[in-house]
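Q: Predict the bound structure with S-adenosyl-1,8-diamino-3-thiooctane.
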Amino acid sequence: MKWYTEQWSDNCKFSIGYNEEIHSEQSPFQKIDFYKSEEFGTFFTLDGLMMVNEKDEFVYHDMITHPAFATNPDIKKVLIIGGGDGGTAREVLRYESVEKVVMVEIDELVFRLSQKYLPITAAGVEEDPRMEMIFDDGLAYVQNAADQSFDLILVDSTDPISVGEGLFTTAFYKECYRVLNEKGILINQHESPYFAEYAENMRKAHKKIKGIFPIASVYQFHMPTYPSGHWLFGFASKALHPIKDIQVDAWDKFGLKTKYYNTDLHVGAFALPTFVKESLDRD
Ligand code: AAT
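A: Predicted complex:
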């Protein structure tokens, strides 16, 4: 067996045994590698970092999508930034009430290779008539988008290195605020509280968003293949509070079967461990 290894910190590595590397290509933006493994099924990495695998993708894609819809069941227009594997779009498109989804992914090759090797996330997404796919930089897209044009923005991005860096800036979060309508919600990549480098990125993102949105919280979930397995999304909003405004009955009425998310877990996910709260509150 061969081993894929990711450096989680200076002194900690995570490895997955794989049977076969099925694709390796340098796109204009990043190095893309697809592998086949027993434990996690097919998975792919960007610049050597785990993005998606068949075994735990449901955790991530449930958690990036459903908390916003349970807080505002009237969401109709959604902007996805990144998300090239299609998994986030797949979950959003399960809501028949959604009228329009714009997905802005910088690297078309990630989507094309996911269509070929990861149908679990990418199949059917492009064919949905509500989808508009744009292959461009997410920051450039929001800079040119009209005021108040979306109900929800989901930032399904890589970490704040290389092409993903612009999606962790104050300028980007400000543009998100502007293009969201008065009940708008922003869900963004919020990294991990555990290893120092990731925790620093978590803290910086929270500080920036807190200065822009009146409601800015963070929620957690268990993602076995991301560094430390303890991962976070940010929930920022112009008006709606993820706990006070949750609409349990309305969400149940959608009748969606989910494998990770439920509305009890929604409430629990916003209850953060003390070390995470202290880290987020530190200036
Ligand atoms: N659904 C979980 C998969 C991802 S992949 C993140 C995607 O963001 C990649 O396809 C990448 O090409 C895209 N991306 C990066 N920067 C930009 C940008 N500036 N504009 C648009 N798309 C971008 C998330 C994995 C999270 C990993 C956490 N460790």
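A: The longest helix spans residues 57-71.
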